[in-house]
Amino acid sequence: MNRNEKDKPGMNRRRFLRNTPLALGVLANLGGLPSIASGQGTVSPSLPLSSAGASPASATRRPRTPRIVVLDWGLTETLVAMGITPVGVAEVAAYQAAVVTPQLPAGVPDVGLRLAPSLEWLAALSPDLILINSSQMSQRDLLSRIAPVHAFAVYTDAGAPYRRAEEVTRALGDLCQQPQAAEALIARTHATLAECTTRLKAFARERNRVARAMYVVQFFDARHLGLYGVRSLFNDVMTTLNVPNAWQGATDYWGIGVGGLDALRTAPDAGLLYFEPLPDAARQMMHDNRLWHALPAANAGRVAPLAPFWGFGMLPSAARFASVLTERLLGDANVGWRPV
Fold it and tell me: Helices 315-331 and 73-81: crossing angle, nearest 10°?
């Protein structure tokens, strides 16, 4: 794994790499699985997926939605928002807590860790497809012994994850033979962002204010934090809403820069929004740390929390972030606005 693929503390990625031997441990138990022919790993979205033993009459029926297992939460939230329920998802409880909405329907099986799913459980579900993101490609050979694998790239060095999320949403709609559902999700997201933009513009006009630049951060502990900047989904949403991003420093392809408290001095007039849950050490630091209280945002009272978010989502996360950010900025003029 190269540096760009390294996970940030508190971002629930690196810890799963430690469990990779689990996948290797069960590989020996897959000897009885049917092999996947070389090259099988893509399915034409224009062709229906048929089940073994289907009757001739079934060929005239409406093609069924494929049985899909998903190991990436951005892809998971997108399918659920399209009305498609996966037959298996990695780390269900953690998804519900981190992504928050859309929630998975009750009873969706948990297939284990995102970077080390249980191959035995996957095989037992008999999926038609397994969906992963491009950073999970190291698992592809193992997973392909169970079902065709499709990898999607939303977060890349090229950035623009919002645009890429739209493209991937359309690809998922074609793959699941639900293109109308994909277009409906894209339209709903556009409408949400447009409504939020209108509300913020109206507030600025009525109050004769200008939006402050905002830091959007995740505290890892009392001394380290991730700063969402260029190439992050949150940055794309902020740009659409005309809310400047205070962090203009370097980021990896997930859109995260890592720094200490000094990183929050680069834009002295900015506000600061941090994602809950806040680590206990960071909460204590905000209470009694002199360096923290000396920061311009903290000293001026321009600091506020945001609800928990999964930082690597797709359109549902974009729409929810736009709504949450808008409510926060409209609810606290000191944090998000300055006089013209």
Answer: 90
Low-confidence ranges of the chain (pLDDT < 50): 1-60
Print the SS3 string covering 159-228.
Answer: CCHHHHHHHHHHHHHHHCCCHHHHHHHHHHHHHHHHHHHHHHHHHHHHHCEEECCEEEEEECCCCCEEEE
Cβ neighbors of 214 (< 8 A, separation 6 or more) are: 238, 243, 244, 245, 246, 270, 271, 272, 273, 336
pLDDT of residue 62: 55
What DSSP string describes 123-142?
HHH--SEEEEEGGGGGGHHH
3-state secondary structure of 250: coil
Q: 245-290 pLDDT, tens per residue?
A: 999 999 999 999 999 999 999 999 999 999 999 999 999 999 999 9
pLDDT given at position 26: 31
What whole-number distance in Å separates Cα of residue 235 and Cα of residue 255? 8
